[in-house]
Design brief:
204 residues; transmembrane helix; transmembrane; membrane
């Protein structure tokens, strides 16, 4: 996950104004930090260590808002349609905050899981549309796999019996899903491709 996000943020910044770049950077840092906490927590548990509850839950409070504002930044990138306005940043921030407040209110992380799923899907779909405009079928296929794989992981994680074999399969699938995302983003940010020559929509 971290590799793809690290590649995407500069790609957005290369074609966007300073405001969009700052938002993309904030979203990227939030996602990478959340992913790092998730990986650290899983490693500790896998090695027989304690289940650190705050670490397990904190990832959702970082991933949801991070994906939401990064999706807004990517939506600001509109090739050949720079005069069209997008939804204001405050609307995306409000969506993320609703998830945070709801999660705190019900004492569960599922509201933030909804925010994360919706925003990461929006991000991937936006990348697919950018790839389509430039005829990048390779990137479209990789991002399609990323979406399908992400939803598959969600269904697998919901299984009541989490065997060791199932957990290893989930982790392997997770690696493949985010590797596909990273390769797709790298492909789109190469010279002459979708994120290398597009213009930016007006922001508010």
């Amino acid at each position: 996950m971290a590799t793809g996000i690290t590649l995407l943020v500069p790609g957005v910044g290369a074609v966007a104004g300073p405001k969009v770049m700052r938002v993309a950077l904030a979203g990227g840092l939030s996602i990478v930090t959340g992913g790092a906490l998730k990986a650290t927590w899983k490693t500790i548990v896998a090695l027989g260590g304690p289940d650190i509850v705050w670490m397990a839950k904190a990832q959702f409070f970082l991933l949801g808002p991070g994906f939401t504002i990064l999706a807004w930044a990517l939506l600001s990138v509109r090739p050949g349609d720079a005069g069209r306005r997008i939804a204001p940043l405050w609307a995306f921030v409000a969506f993320a905050l609703i998830g945070v407040v709801a999660a705190a209110g019900v004492g569960a992380t599922w509201p933030l899981l909804v925010v994360t799923t919706a925003s990461s899907t929006l991000l991937a779909v936006r990348l697919i549309l950018l790839a389509q405009k430039s005829g990048d079928t390779v990137a479209m296929a990789l991002l399609g796999f990323n979406i399908l794989g992400s939803y598959s992981m969600g269904m697998l994680a919901g299984q009541p019996e989490q065997t060791i074999a199932l957990q290893w399969f989930e982790e392997s699938l997770n690696t493949c899903v985010w590797t596909a995302f990273a390769v797709a983003v790298w492909w789109l940010t190469r010279a002459g491709r979708a994120l290398a020559h597009v213009r930016t929509a007006p922001v508010s």
